[in-house]
């Protein structure tokens, strides 16, 4: 517990630790057929845990941004053109900013942290690429932003299966859906038909 507390003592150290964990997982996952929930996964759970008192204190968007940046993702604020990647460059807490886009490429986000999306009312774009800790149970939680989400990209998340992809049918406002690099999808043709039927106004790419 002393070691875990020390991670939170300095945001820069926390970012460095998470980056090291992600790099280690990239190496070990090369030799695995299906990722296992080993030590690195359980340590990542700690970094994804939801602090509801923090959400009440600073608001859902600020708390969500803190979660994402701590785990190696980036955000783009509403009204801005550039993504913010550096945790230490978050605006002062008294400045109310709203997340519009999320890029979780090569990040350590897991389903445990997805409840952070609840209350974020402006997120219209999410990119989940090479998220090695991402499993099927994370995708239904995207329903928290279903009213605003129009663009979703999920690629090279190796543990996602047909079950996870089917849960995306509930995201009725999607206009663009890009899927690929998921080796355990059993029937891509049928999946694409199901998605197209459920999301008639969405351009779907499934490779």
Fold and architecture overview:
- This is ATP synthase subunit s, mitochondrial isoform X1.
- InterPro entries: LRR_dom_sf.
- The protein has 207 residues and is α/β, with parallel strands linked by helices.
- The protein has two domains: 1-31; 34-206, Leucine-rich repeat, LRR (right-handed beta-alpha superhelix) (Alpha-Beta Horseshoe), CATH 3.80.10.10.
- 34% of the residues lie in helices and 14% in strands.
- The chain has helices spanning 2-8, 11-29, 39-48, 52-58, 60-70, 162-166, 188-198; strands at 74-77, 99-103, 125-129, 151-155, 176-180, 203-206.
- The chain has a six-stranded mixed sheet, covered by helices on one side.
- Helix 6 links the parallel strand 4 and strand 5.
- Helix 4 (52-58) packs across helix 5.
- The longest helix has 19 residues, at 11-29.
- It is globular.
């Amino acid at each position: 517990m002393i070691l875990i507390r020390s991670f939170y003592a300095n945001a820069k150290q926390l970012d460095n630790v998470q980056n090291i964990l992600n790099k280690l997982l990239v190496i070990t996952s090369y030799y695995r057929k299906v990722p296992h929930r080993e030590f690195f996964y359980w340590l990542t759970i700690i970094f994804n845990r939801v602090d509801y008192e923090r959400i009440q204190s600073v608001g859902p968007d600020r708390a969500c941004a803190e979660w994402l940046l701590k785990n190696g993702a980036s955000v783009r604020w509403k009204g801005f053109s550039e993504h913010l990647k550096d945790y230490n460059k978050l605006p002062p807490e008294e400045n109310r900013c709203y997340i519009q886009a999320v890029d979780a490429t090569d990040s350590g986000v897991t389903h445990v942290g997805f409840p952070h999306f609840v209350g974020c009312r402006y997120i219209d774009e999410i990119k989940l690429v090479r998220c090695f800790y991402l499993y099927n149970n994370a995708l239904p939680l995207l329903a928290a932003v279903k009213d605003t989400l129009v663009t979703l990209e999920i690629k090279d998340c190796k543990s996602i299966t047909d079950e996870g992809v089917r849960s995306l049918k509930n995201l009725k406002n999607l206009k663009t859906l890009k899927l690929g690099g998921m080796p355990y999808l059993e029937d891509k043709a049928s999946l694409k038909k199901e998605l197209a039927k459920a999301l008639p106004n969405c351009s779907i790419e499934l490779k």
